[in-house]
Amino acid sequence: MTSLTLAGIRKRFGKVDVIRGVDLRVADGEFVVFVGPSGCGKSTLLRMIAGLEDISEGELRIGDRIVNEVQPAKRGVAMVFQSYALYPHLTVRDNMGFGLKVRGVPPHERRQRVEAAAATLKLDALLQRFPRELSGGQRQRVAIGRAIVGEPDVFLFDEPLSNLDAELRVHMRSEIASLHKRLGNTMIYVTHDQIEAMTLADKIVVLRDGQVEQVGTPRQLYERPGNLFVAQFIGSPKMNILPIEAVAGKLPGQPKTASLVGVRPEDLELTEPGSGFVDARILISEYTGASSLLHVQLPSGQVFLVAHDGEAPPADTSVGLAVEPGRLHFFADSGRRAD
Amino acid sequence: MGGLTQKQLRIVNQVCWTLALAVAAIPFVFPFLWMISSGFKSASEIFGSPSLVPREWQWRNFVDVFTYQPFARQYFNSLYIALTVTALTLVISSLAGYALARLRFAGAGLISLFLVSALMVPEEVTMIPNFFLIKWAGLIDTHWPLIMLPVFGPQGIMATFLMRQYFLALPRELEEAGKMDGLSRFGVWWRIALPMSRPALAAVAIITFLNSWNLFLEPLIFISSLEKFTLPLALSNFTDPYGTPLWHLQLAATTLAVLPILIVYLIAQRQIIESFALSGVKG
User: Fold this and answer.
1) pLDDT tens, B203-250?
2) ipTM of this model?
3) What pTM was estimated for this model as a whole?
4) Does A315 map to a domain?
5) Regarding beta strands A31-35 and A16-26, do their DSSP bridges make them parallel or antiparallel, or are they unpaired?
6) What is the DSSP pairing of strand A260-263 with strand A65-66?
7) Is the pLDDT of residue B1 over 70?
8) Of A3, A72, A204, A252, which has the highest C-beta tally within 10 A?
């Protein structure tokens, strides 16, 4: 088990800065998730940690070693790829044992380690099969098994569940979580799916345009987003944002520097018109089973989303929107949180 | 037609297609059958009887072929040259193709352009400078030019580009997984890229072998000793002292010459057709 330190990490592809100065510390045994929109540099950052991309500037430490110039296989990391990257010409057993064979691990030890990993991942019966004979979930488990047998210090996952169907994704997510619990290794996981990020992570790193927007626990990011981007990126449906001047009167806890107020759809409650902090008219009501998602229009013309439990009022009904004072998020003009 | 079921329609359709293809195949199959049958006829019967089945089976032709000139030696020459050319082409084209597909090095684009432009030069143009080069190297009347020219000439370049295109289509993540597993660049090529390129390697092997096996112009120019002849040259050498072809011997020898190709084709028919489809080369 090992910690990881990224100091002033930059990556340039020609004249384009893809990673623009990332400082981050990942503690020993921590499960860290890199999350962000497409093109934010999260996969590039992971690949730099793996050694598959050169580091243009900055310092990467794994444990006590600076590994900027160290070959991927000698960094003590293992990677699970988005496409699984199983060797199609090798059986499951050979796929899992391939890295050990390259490193010159004796056959009997190789067999032991492969079989132990296969037992952990319930792959025993599939060892003689080729990747083409496996389902998506089985392939994913083999890819994880291949990473496990190398006994790495750090596991890297590059959107490993994005090729699976919704049901299997939930199942594999819980398998990865229990794997982390069992092995206790440091794990870095890249995803654009914030549910994966929220459920798996000890710590989430939100990236945008090659920079870290915020680092924190899932709860910190959800309850105290550091800026407008994080506020709207974390949480589904995304946070409603309203200019302060669109609200009649001063909001409770409103700081002087605030120019925008944010409120999550699940924190809004419907009240009688005039009794909330703002009035609205219901446009559409989407029944989702557990609750309804209401699209409501404010007097300013802006559309808010409201997650509403119970019977939803019909369209065109006028309502008031109320929220507990502690559930309001204020942001300055710059987009930063205003407290 | 109302009485025909779906299944019957399919059978009728299949029969019609088979008949049409059989008729279309006659111009290709007939000369082949004529060659084999004439190999068993006497010289006079070949032009005297239009029948495909010989009146008298002349098994002697197949013995005479070996006594008329050192045909066994010539057969062996063709075989070892074709195998050597194939092996060398496989090694060089897969290495060079991989380098062009995956390595980032200064002048990579220029090298590709240079190689492609070399393909544009007709073989007849390069033959004279090649002759002088081979003569200067003292390799006239040796098998070296028959090996080196195909390997490093247009056929080698074609093979290199075929391999390059195939390597370009391989998923990069597999090679990266190889690197994570501890493979060097060479190891990635040898243990991942190459095993995954079997269809392309098969295509290169089949095309190269056929080209070398059928090579006529180069042996004609560079080889003068009878025992160093390759098959195509040897086949044209079954003549009487006045230069008239001894058809019965020539066709018996040709029958023997196509034998390995025929056997390989029967064994790997599907693979060969896929190879031609992959390479865009017509058979």
Assistant:
1) 899 889 989 999 999 999 999 999 999 999 999 888 888 888 889 899
2) 0.84
3) 0.81
4) yes
5) unpaired
6) unpaired
7) no
8) A204
**What residues of B are in contact with residue A99 (Cβ under 8 Å)?**
180-182
Q: Which domains does chain B have, with CATH numbers?
A: 69-237 (1.10.3720.10)
Does residue A336 fall inside a structural domain? no
Q: Are B85 and B150 in contact (CB under 8 A)?
A: yes
Residues A220 and A241 in one domain: no
Q: How many domains would you assign to chain A?
A: 2
Domain membership of residue A337 (yes or no) is no
Give the DSSP per-residue string, A54-104.
--SEEEEEETTEE-TTS-GGGTTEEEE-TT----TTS-HHHHHHHHHHHTT
What is the extent of the structural domain holding A279? 237-331
CATH number of the domain to which A243 belongs:
2.40.50.140
Q: Which two tokens stand for residue B224?
A: 């003068």
Question: For the segment A41-75, what is each residue's pLDDT rounded down to a tens digit?
Answer: 999 999 999 999 999 999 999 998 999 999 999 99
Q: Is A102 on the interface with B (CB under 8 A)?
A: yes
| Cα B240 versus chain centre, distance | 30
In this prediction, residues A7-35 reach a mean pLDDT of 94
Q: How far is A79 from chain B (nearest CA, A)?
A: 7
A51 vs B contacts (CB less than 8 Å): 179-180
- According to the 3-state scheme, what is the secondary structure of chain B? CCCCCHHHHHHHHHHHHHHHHHHHHHHHHHHHHHHHHHHCCCHHHHHHCCCCCCCCCCCHHHHHHHHHCCHHHHHHHHHHHHHHHHHHHHHHHHHHHHHHHHCCCCCHHHHHHHHHHHHHCCHHHHHHHHHHHHHHCCCCCCCHHHHHHHHHCHHHHHHHHHHHHHHHHCCHHHHHHHHHCCCCHHHHHHHHHHHHCHHHHHHHHHHHHHHHHHCCHHHHHHCCCHHHCCHHHHHCCCECCCCCECHHHHHHHHHHHHHHHHHHHHHCHHHHHHHHHHHCCCC
Contact (CB<8Å) B177/A73: no
Tell whether A191 and A256 lie within a shared domain: no
Distance from CA of B173 to the nearest CA of A (A): 6
Subunit contact A79:B192, Cβ cutoff 8 A: no
